[in-house]
Write a structure and sequence with these properties.
The chain has nine helices and no strands. The protein is mostly helical. Helix 4 runs antiparallel to helix 5. The longest helix has 52 residues.
Length: 213
Amino acid sequence: MRQFLFLVAALAVGCGSSNSDVDAGGGDVDAGGGDVDAGGGDVDAGGGDVDAGAPAAPTCAAYCTAVMGACTGANAMYTSMDSCLAVCAGLPVGTAADMAGNTVGCRTYHAGAAAGDPATHCMHAGPGGSGVCGNDCEGFCAVALHACTGDNSVYADAAACMTECAGFATTPAYSTATTSGDSFACRLYHLTAAASDAATHCDHIGLMSPVCN
């Protein structure tokens, strides 16, 4: 009888020990779950890093501040901040990574580069783009169709503008000092003025311009 009771007690102790091990194991599993959650936190932190590293989109304010500051005197592309902002509003925005193409992003890059080399980069940062930030007629027509509309409209569509622009004399080079004479430069100057004063200057940008003739 004593041997039987001893055996029952031993079995009870053994079973209790086994249950304790299982619980401990469960604790280990829970601890492992905690590690998984911590890993999830790392993923979230990584997502924050991606957002923080995204470049800001180009803005007209940043572009005009840069080009007005770097391109002055003989290298000036605009006669005023208002004119620059009005021209910029008619250009495709593009991206902050643009170094070529008819975009605000491209012009912003070259306006920054112009701070160290205005003779090379100011023309690229200007309203026409000078074959780097689009060809001159691309820039001209984008702004013309945006600025000169309704009663001040000069071109029916982009195709009509591009065709007529291709026939404009390409000399002298664009300058804010070229305000008369039969050339693309004269028409582009008046277009930069038309962007903020359409009633006065839109009539001056076309083939039959009374000023650029």
